[in-house]
Design brief:
It contains eight helices and four strands; from the N terminus they run H-H-H-H-H-H-E-H-E-E-H-E. By secondary structure, it is an alpha+beta fold.
Length: 224
């Protein structure tokens, strides 16, 4: 028997040994459903309300079931497995991920389907527990005070030095990120941190030449 015949025989025997019965399919899909619902609950609990996407969360719950079914189909037949590879290779996802943490949940959901489809149920459960503990622990880590973005609009008489002197009276660090000068006046965007936001806004609004003051908080870095 040649090496080619031996390879063909081993491949055929490997897929013929992967014939699935109904009970095994039900068990795999049931565990995939349970894992999907668990991921759904964790994502709903830990996600910030401003970034929560119900449609994305439902997709996370359904994805382990679909992935597990694909794994079962690929194990049962060589032709189906090759067809699945070809079909999935042409799929393109163009949905933008708004929060970087959603990528971790996406890979978690897909990996649960793959692991459950492979029959490694203990690994899937242990991995879910470890990921949940890590997510909750990192979510409990205290963060620094969120930076503030101060938008100050002034007329022609408004002076940048007077505005910044007033801001630095309420903030240890303050940096102008943008200056917009028009014929009617000037607009400054200042990044800073302060504990007394209300007093800061009132003080800046009282500076000569200031027309309007807006104060916003953000969680990330500012780029203009």
């Amino acid at each position: 028997m040649s090496i080619t015949d031996m390879l063909k025989k081993s491949v055929v025997e490997g897929f013929s040994a992967g014939n699935l019965d109904t009970s095994h399919i039900i068990v795999v899909l049931a565990i995939a459903v349970a894992l999907g619902l668990f991921i759904y609950a964790v994502y709903r609990t830990t996600s910030k309300s401003g970034f929560y996407n119900r449609g994305f969360n439902k997709a996370l719950a359904v994805m382990p079931v679909i992935t597990a079914a694909i794994m079962l189909a690929m194990q049962s037949n060589l032709v189906i497995s090759l067809g699945m590879v070809g079909a999935l290779s042409i799929v393109r996802f163009r949905n933008a991920v708004k929060d970087s943490s959603d990528l971790a949940y996406l890979f978690w959901s897909i990996s649960m389907g793959i692991i459950a489809g492979a029959g490694l149920f203990e690994l899937a459960i242990l991995l879910s527990i470890c990921v949940t503990i890590l997510v909750v622990a990192l979510d409990m880590v205290p963060t620094f005070r969120a930076p503030c973005i101060l938008v100050v609009s002034g007329d022609k008489e408004a002076e940048e030095k007077a505005v910044m002197d007033c801001v630095k009276g309420f903030a240890k660090t303050a940096k102008i990120r943008s200056r917009n000068i028009t014929k009617n006046g000037t607009e400054w965007i200042v990044e800073m941190q302060t504990k007394d936001e209300a007093a800061l806004v009132k003080a800046v609004a009282a500076v000569a030449g200031v027309v309007s003051v807006n104060l916003m908080t953000h969680d990330g870095e500012v780029r203009f």
